[in-house]
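Task card 7
Instruction: Convert sequence to structure tokens.
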Amino acid sequence: MKITKILFIILTSISFSGNAQNSVDAISKEWERAKSYTKEYLDAMPASGYGLKPTPEMRSFAEQILHSTDTDYAFVSAATGVKSPVGMGELEKTADKSKANVTKLVMEGYDFVINAIKTMTPAQLNEHIKLFGRFDLTKEMILQKSFEHQTHQRGQTTVYLRLAGVKPPQEKLF
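Output:
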């Protein structure tokens, strides 16, 4: 009977740790999908549309996308402990907002996010930290908030594409 209990505990532990690692893998795979989907948006917008603003007080298409990348760097750096190579809000203020440069910066941002997430251990996902000294969240929740933010920002750019006369890419849920 003791051997059965010990085997049960060992197998349960292995199962849970495997599921936790799958969670890290699943999170990074979702970011891979988001990267691919965002690249479709970047490719769909003509170079002439990168400066497009729906109204004068709104961000341009390039600024909107770069704002999302700035936030990804900040959130994911906080969650993973991997130092961000860019300062907070730095990308949105970049002078070169050409299609080629914005695409390069955004893809580098996704690569940073994906690679930083892959450095995490399953146990780290459940660790609590104070994000920006204000919000007590698990590291996994911070990653979810960052993912939610980039999805929201990309969704807003659908309007920019429509205003530029471009059909937005097909939804990519899976």
